[in-house]
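Q: What would this chain look like folded?
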Amino acid sequence: MSDNDFDAVIGQAWTDHVDDARGVAGRLPQLQALATDEPQLMRVIMLAHHVYGAHLGEWEAGTSALHSLRAHSAYRDDAASGDSMRRALASLALCAGGAPSGLGASDEIRAHAMAADNLSSHDTARAAQQFGQALALAERSALPGTDPMHRALAAAANGLACTLEEKAGRSAAERALMILAAQAARRHWELAGTWLEVERAEYRLAMTWLQAGDLAQARRHAQQCLDIVEVKQAPALESFFGWEALGVVERAAGNASAHARALDRARTAFADLAADDQAWCKQSLDKLTSPAPG
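A: My prediction, written as structure tokens:
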């Protein structure tokens, strides 16, 4: 089997997992059999943890699925796959109410962040607890900006904010957690990412503040997203989403002329997208095309 075969199968699993998490969980033995080396096995570990954790919320079943991956010939308990396995198992143990031990500072922070992301769709109060623990540990750790926990914390924070943005009837506590998560994602991407991740974190903040009902903050972050796009002469895809963010804010504010300008710029960027990007961006453009109120 070629690497392309494995890439195609696991890529399809990631495509399908949102709508068919149970079905993708059932494909894990196939993916385990297709993996030929440690990096591929680690990708299966990551998928297994995410499907059973964030989507199915089945901590014990996820733990069993992960343990089964240890039987793979490429698994090395004293190497990268072992580290990945310990973080994933610790994350699910935290979700189940346990308190795993034996992790270094960086891995402990990552496990709490992963647990928060898992719990965000199942138990917001416990997600907030795990996320707060991750942030507190990161603050006390004094780990350098190059430590991988910053990237893991940024990614988990982004996922938490996205989940809460989509939640209907957010409580005051959930609103506060959504904002905290988006702000933490921006802060840790500044340390762990490139200008691209920072720009996208500004987009996330714009959408979070929009959902939080603070249009002034939402507008400020949408503009900061566009400022980065302009300075970096970013690709059309980044420009499209920057103008989409500003457009939805101006529509919510009832600023018809500003909404129309943003829509025009988004359409220009959309026309420069590759056909496959246009296919998945079309829904966002259609929503933006809705007229501004008033």
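Residues 128-193 form one domain.
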